[in-house]
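User: Structure please.
Assistant: Input sequence and predicted structure:
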Amino acid sequence: MPGFELFGEKEKSQVQDVLDSGVLMRYGFDGMRNNHWKALELEAALTKRMNAGYAQLVSSGTAALTVALASAGVGAGDEVIMPTFTFVASFESILAIGAVPILVDVDDTLTLDPVAVENAITEKTKVVMPVHMCGSMADLKALKAICDKHDLLLLEDACQAIGGSFDGKPLGSYGDLGCFSFDYVKTITCGEGGAVITNNVTYKTNADHYSDHGHDHVGNNRGAETHPFLGYNYRISELNAAVGCAQIERLDDFLAIQEKHYAVIREELSVLPNI
């Protein structure tokens, strides 16, 4: 059940705030926006909900993965271990920055098998990237131990798993970086959007710059900002962020509905005769 099925007055009110200001871009135009900063508001809500130090909104879950990898210094020739069962965006993001996806077997979690991961590590391995497919969480404790042993980054692709948890921590917050998607059919949606979360201030700073053409966002004159390094346009709009501001407030309600539906389906399946 995606969030768009329950659009209501909260989403309309948040979007109307943006339309009333006339400022659809997340950066600049300070005097026109009537102190409405929807992207910043949603980033603050994400850091609180995910128990993370920092959040960076971007234009999609695919962009989030790409920005996360680039922000952590992953690049040409680096190997990223990922599961065979995934969505195309997982390896698109790796290829986009010139890195090499290394596909390994999954286990009963539907994502990375820790034994297969350890067997796939080479001198070029830089990242282990579990994908919590369909909300099914990876064995993050085992994967984190492997990453610590081999000095690797643990990047959680939690694009399909917002609201889940592992060992008391929100999915996405267990690793060095976590990524979410807010596309139209996700549990909460911005229409289009995504986010990177991390506790590493360097990764956050790099993500902030990289996702907006390398702008350093220092001062309040966009034209006078410097560009410490090359970046691309992975910005989210204020309209999309506004929808997300309403949706994240409703996340617990959405999860409760999903749990109710799951319980009904499980109960019905339990009484079916064995065939």
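The longest helix spans residues 251-270.
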